[in-house]
UniProtKB/TrEMBL annotation:
This is GTPase HflX. GTP binds at residues 197-204, 222-226, 244-247, 310-313, 333-335. The lineage of its organism: Bacteria, Pseudomonadati, Verrucomicrobiota, Pedosphaerae, Pedosphaerales. InterPro entries: G_HFLX_dom (IPR030394), GTP-bd (IPR006073), GTP-bd_M (IPR032305), GTPase_HflX (IPR016496), GTPase_HflX_N (IPR025121), GTPase_HflX_N_sf (IPR042108), P-loop_NTPase (IPR027417). The keyword Membrane does not apply. It holds the Pfam family GTP-bdg_M. It is found in: Cytoplasm. Belongs to the TRAFAC class OBG-HflX-like GTPase superfamily. HflX GTPase family. GO terms for cellular component: cytoplasm. SUPFAM superfamilies: P-loop containing nucleoside triphosphate hydrolases. Keywords: Cytoplasm, GTP-binding, Magnesium, Metal-binding, Nucleotide-binding.
Length: 414
């Protein structure tokens, strides 16, 4: 496999080098062997072949001599560019988006994950269908004058569109199910914290370390895709729901973000984002910016965020200056456990629930009110003796009016 990148005027040479190194990791994750890469400096990509025709011929000769069967471009190609490049290289041409979609397809385990990947793949494929039927005749003209390829193309396009619509409906059901699950969690008044971060920053390792979960954690990009939620009990004796989400990456395909909206709603609805950063990575700042860009795209920008710098076991003391410059950041090693107590303490501070602590007196015959109180509130004390049942309970502020007729007094929050 051979990789190709373009150094545009708006990019620095080190940026394209880092991007190609990351593309190499992605290719390795997909199971490919990379024999080398090449770049070209350009003002803007060429409309026909993305890179210049001369450079394309040069790379093609190199690929032939090294028996390369696949070439991957570090940027997204148009359908026409892919078709033209295949004629020049005489081998399979992929772009960064296609590679990421292939990795996601390999890694998805749940039905929801597989549906989301298939949706993204079909949305990516739809405008590219023409290239798959380029070997068939395409006569122009009126009704009855279309060639076999044109007829097959229209049939395939219709089938793809139908499948996209069907998957979208199934994912809408998933979205409603997730909404129901969130309402169920809210009955316990447990705050939700979502772990976000660049892929391979150590999110799954952190979830395993603090909750005892058994989520797959590998030193690979996109080791886990399917979200996992576990209960975490903090030192303050407070329960928190912690969700591990799919890792982000530079140039994350828009179709993929759209397809994963049902999953990423867990991030949007979270009370707190735990942004895990690989503190040992030289590209930590750029990775933070890439994660923030995706958060902005899904509508989660500006949410309360706790910065957690992981993998500090790989650092020497002098290399921690950047971490120390970030306000309220926590430095940890999810692998060794260093810094985990400080992380838990900071979580307790930032997730302190906003609830009203009140005492209520409810007539025994109002069983529906008592049931509702237990469903949406955190009942601390109960006394069924006497003519009326008495409760000391914590409730969300927005439910105050619902229980106002039964409130005896506000209590001091401890």
């Amino acid at each position: 496999m051979f990789l190709v990148g373009v150094e545009l005027k708006s990019r620095n040479a080190w940026e394209i080098r880092e991007s190609l190194d990351e593309l190499t990791e992605l290719a390795a994750t997909a199971g490919a062997d990379v024999i080398g890469d090449g770049t070209q400096k350009m003002e803007a990509p060429m409309a026909a072949t993305f890179i210049g025709s001369g450079k394309a011929q040069e790379f093609a000769r190199h690929c032939v001599s090294n028996e390369v069967d696949t070439v991957i471009f570090d940027d997204e190609l148009t359908p026409a560019q892919s078709r033209n490049l295949e004629q020049v290289f005489n081998c399979k041409i992929l772009d960064r988006t296609s590679l990421i979609l292939d990795i996601f397809a390999q890694r998805a385990r749940t039905k929801e994950g597989k549906l989301q990947i298939e949706l993204a793949q079909l949305q990516h494929l739809l405008p590219r269908l023409t290239r798959f039927w380029g070997h068939l005749s395409r006569q122009k003209g009126g009704i009855g004058m279309r060639g076999d390829g044109e007829t097959q193309l229209e049939t395939d396009r219709r089938r793809v569109q139908d499948r996209i619509a069907r998957i979208a409906r199934e994912l809408e059901v998933v979205r409603r199910q997730r909404s129901t699950q969130r309402h169920g969690r809210q009955r316990n008044l447990w705050p939700l914290a979502s772990i976000v971060g660049y892929t391979n920053a150590g999110k799954s390792t952190l979830l395993n370390a603090v909750t005892g979960a058994d989520v797959l954690a590998e030193n690979k990009l996109f080791a886990t895709l399917d979200p996992t939620t576990r209960r975490l009990r903090l030192p303050t004796n407070q329960n928190v729901l912690l969700t591990d989400t799919v890792g982000f990456i530079r140039k994350l395909p828009h179709n993929l973000v759209e397809a994963f909206k049902a999953t990423l709603e867990e991030v949007v609805q979270a009370d707190l984002l735990i942004h895990v950063v690989d503190g040992s990575s030289p590209q930590a700042e750029e990775q933070i910016a890439a994660v923030n860009a995706v958060l902005d795209e899904i509508g989660a920008a500006g949410k309360p965020t706790m910065m957690v710098f992981n993998k500090i076991d790989k650092l020497v003391n002098g290399e921690r200056n950047f971490i120390q410059s970030v306000p309220n950041a926590v430095a940890i090693s999810a692998k060794t456990g260093e810094g985990i107590p400080e992380l838990m303490a900071e979580l307790g501070k930032q997730l302190k629930p906003i609830r009203e602590f009140i005492e209520l007196s409810v007539p025994h015959e109002n069983a529906a009110v008592i049931a509702r109180l237990h469903a949406v509130g955190q009942v601390m004390e109960r006394d069924y003796e006497g003519e009326q049942a008495r409760f000391k309970v914590r409730i969300p502020p927005h439910l105050h009016e619902e229980f106002a007729p039964f409130i005896v007094q506000a209590l001091q929050t401890v």
